[in-house]
Known about the structure:
The structure holds two protein chains of two kinds. By secondary structure, chain A is an alpha+beta fold. Chain A has helices at residues 24-31, 83-90, 100-113, 119-126, 137-146; strands at residues 2-9, 12-19, 50-53, 56-59, 72-74. Chain A has a five-stranded mixed sheet with strand order 2-1-5-3-4, with helices on both faces. In chain A, helix 2 crosses helix 3. The longest helix of chain A is centred in the last third of the chain and has 14 residues, at 100-113. Chain A starts with a strand and ends in a 10-residue tail after the last helix. Chain B has 17 helices and 32 strands. An eight-stranded mixed sheet of chain B has the order 3-7-1-14-11-12-13-23, sandwiched between helices. A five-stranded mixed sheet of chain B has the order 9-17-16-15-10, with helices on both faces. In chain B, strand 31 (629-639), helix 15 and strand 32 form a beta-alpha-beta unit. In chain B, helix 9 (349-367) packs parallel to helix 16 (723-735), helix 12 (471-483) runs parallel beside helix 13 and helix 15 crosses helix 16. Chain B is globular and about 95 Å long. One FE2/S2 (inorganic) cluster sits between chains A (94-100, 131-134) and B (179, 230, 468). One FE2/S2 (inorganic) cluster binds at residues 39-42, 44-49, 59, 61 of chain A.
Amino acid sequence: MKKTIDFTVNNEQKSVQIRSADTLLITLREQLGLTGAKPGCENGDCGACTVLVDDQPMKSCLMLTAETANRSITTIEGLHDTPIQKAFLEHWGFQCGYCTSGFIMNCHALANIHPDANAYEIENWLQSNICRCTGYEEIKEAIMSVLKTKEAGTSG
Amino acid sequence: MTGAAKYTADFTAPGLLHASLLTSPHAHAKIKSIDLSEAEKCPGVRAIVIGQDIPVLTGTTVEDRPILALNKVRYFGEPIAVVVADSEHEAQSACQQINVTYELYPVVNSVHQALESKPILVHEQLMNYTQVQKIQPEANSNIANQIKVRKGDIDVGRDQSEVTMTADFSFPPSDHAAMETRSVRAELLPNGEVHIHTSSQGPFMVKELISRYFLIDEDKVTVHTPLVGGGFGGKAAVQLELIAFAASRAAGGKIVKLSNTRETDITGSPGHIGLEANVKLGATKGGKLTFAEIHYNFNAGAYVDEGSDITEIAGLNCTGPYKIDHVWCNSLCVYTNHPYATSFRGYGHGELTFPIERAMDLLAEKLRIDPIAFRLKNTIKPGDTTPSQTKLTKSNIGNVAKCLERVKTLINWDEGQTVNLSDRLIRTKGISCFWKSSITPTDATSGAILTFNKDGSINLSCGVVEIGQGTKTVLAQILAERLKIHESKIHVMMDVDTQTNPQHWKTVASSSVYMVGNAVLRAAEDAIQQLCQTASIVLRCEPGDVDVAEARAFLISNPDKYVSVKDIANGYKYTNGNSIGGTVIGRGNFIMKHLTSIDKETGKGTPASDWTVGAQAVEVEFDTKSYNYKLIHAVSVLDAGKVLHPKSARGQVTGAMSMGLSWATREGFSFDKNGIVLDNQFRTYKMLRYGENPTYLVDFIETPQIDAPYGARGLGEHGIIGMPAALANSLSTAAGVPLNQLPLVPEYIWEQKRGEASDSN
Ligand code: FES
Ligand code: FES
């Protein structure tokens, strides 16, 4: 049983035919070709699939596409030259790059929603993503460079 | 960065079919029957393959592993059947309809159990398997391979010792947990060509094995590898590729995609080896090591894969970077009913370093000598020999003592190993040395090809897979340095295609820079020679009068007289249209030299071309009431030979340190009594997260390796090696009890403390 869902993706109006069980991650990747959101666990544990739903970061593997009707989705493909993208490049915030789009989406939302985030808030947000390659040092440099919070934070 | 980088599972194709695996719910059981009738009726199903359909045994050292379980299952998660369907969810639901009946067998649930006198056998046919490399299994046992190292005379060493220590050490199997799960697309074209797209560290190996097991000419098989989302050794094993090919063939050759779920990636595909060890060390009262007697019993799990090689290198380098004249070591590769193991970052060295460096601290404590001072008295140097009796030279080993001295300063050792912060909080430090050599086949080879574009920029083609280690950047740099041009003028092909790229053994063992780097330098020489040849005609001189730099070929005696490389690289055209020369193609190759095979009674031989050394330290803040702790500082000092790319080198080292700390603080499979893995999701299989990392202090010593490109030694894996030992040494000091098991969770520390309390009652 397929049904039709209308939503906005990266500022474009889209209409997709979905199964009720389709997750947003599957729809984005397989129907819209937006493969920047990555499957890492499909269980809400790794954050590689993070996108923005109405500007809030959301693990797209945990959300059914059916829930997103008439809402606005932003994926990494919808970000262009944002400060956080530049910061990840400049600070070498990635190695294999697989976790990167998820991290960037989460960081981007953090910078927009809590530009003054303190060390605790930053940790609280970014602990929902896993990076297996880096030691998080570069990712920290990248996020700190775009936040207004300039003190080094508590975690080294 | 923009979402444009494509990994294997990001590609799709019209008509693509999806495959899904049915995996074993048991760790050891006979497969009595498999009933496919219900599954075959499911919507969308195109084919189902089970072990009986492809009854070959596979393996790169010994052929012990069926592609899909045959007759019995040997570990929880072992693939039993693959279903091909129009969509992934149809393939998954059909899998649920496969009806397998089992007869449960008793489970070999630890190395200890595997080595009991009348053990349950994981492989009854062990002695009949085809050995691809010479290994030494033992009949009627679970021992798949055994390495014996006999150097000097252990009895003499014992007689010389005044103080000795002995202890057991262990850690369970764990996982690589690369963020990208393994993924493959396979296709068999009507003309017999096979195309495999895979997230592999060894595309050339995939090609060889598909050809071998399915009896297809190698020239018909092409393997493509785009970017790989982390490997850490786990993607050097060939497994899903074989299943995906069989699935495509069964579905009429159509293109089939098979991606692991996280759960299958953790238990179904190979992981990180486990270990149970016993170490005895002796020393004089003055602190000179006299002997080492070592048992390494590796838990290879249900199949050998790389387990036998890991066992071998751990045995041959068993002592760590110390001069010990009398060494006795037995290193065993043991089958159990656990998920099987393959190569893992550090390849046997993180594993051997944990027991050895713990033992060094325990002995230092007995001797009442400072742990750093004790190590400094015993570090190995040029002129000494390794346990495998390879003579060390100024070139093939770095400077351990220098690394240790530097670590001592960076961690501020002199303030004291323990610092009290409050009535319950203390800060403690622990250290570890390490060494690492890469084990490669004695004939491992690599190639490189250079071609020139019209604008003078250069294409570099080689078989290295980019897995996030920046190897290709370093190769571009080596080439840029040799041709004295800017790196941006060099294009390295990022994807690997076995049909067009020259062979590279495997992208593992940090050896890529050494092997391919040397091939790149030779290709550069070859290209320069051809450029000089053409330039000499244009400049009317001898080829020997010309040199190449900064995109020009110029007269050595008068550099103002030159011709641009771009004007000669694809033939030089005179103004009247006559042309000379032709397309320049630089070719270079490299093969490992002077490696010898290993004597099976004594371990004597030369297994590797070089030993990279280093020292590390970890400082924790420890709560003496709750046994919780925080990682404060982690230090690595590596003798890198030459650092080619400082920022990327630091990133490699801190990334590996983070992985080592994650492993040591929390990773490792928990098995229930039936051998079922309890933590096969990231919800339960924990890894280090943002903010839990310590502050990293990284520095490099540069003792060049003479035969390596610009003296650079490999460093992609080394940061991981000493982390578990340094952490355990730090926490043992903090807790005041020996902590000889990983992972070092607070519950374990609490148990040890409680054990100590009840021992003294
Ligand atoms: S794939 Fe969504 S959180 Fe891991
Ligand atoms: S860069 Fe590889 S997982 Fe983060």
